[in-house]
Design goal:
By secondary structure, the chain is mostly helical. The protein is 53% helix and 0% strand. Helix 2 packs antiparallel against helix 3. The two termini are 40 Å apart.
């Protein structure tokens, strides 16, 4: 394939099993380019206050995972939009590294 090796067991007829076999060989023997980026990422996992969402979460758990995420989304968005000096400082510190 990409390194000049022959895989005689691979068939060329267009169907799903042959496509899966080709994909498997490409993943095992193909060239995967992964650039080595010189960046530093500062991650933080702030606590999201959600005690007020408990009744809604209990009801949502009984329906679907999507319903749970919809309830949690409002608390997550509030945390993202909340101005925080710590997040700004972390971003500036990460850029300097």
């Amino acid at each position: 394939m990409t390194r000049g090796e022959k895989f005689d067991e691979l068939k060329t007829i267009s169907n799903i099993p042959n496509a899966l076999a080709m994909h498997e060989k490409l993943m095992l023997y193909g060239i995967r380019y992964r650039p080595n980026y010189k960046i530093a990422i500062a991650e933080s996992f702030p606590a999201i206050l959600g005690e007020h969402l408990r009744p809604q979460l209990i009801a949502a758990i009984k329906t679907s995972p999507l319903a749970v995420e919809q309830v949690l989304l409002s608390a997550k968005i509030d945390m993202i939009h909340r101005p925080s000096q710590n997040r700004i400082h972390s971003c500036q510190r990460a850029n300097r590294l």
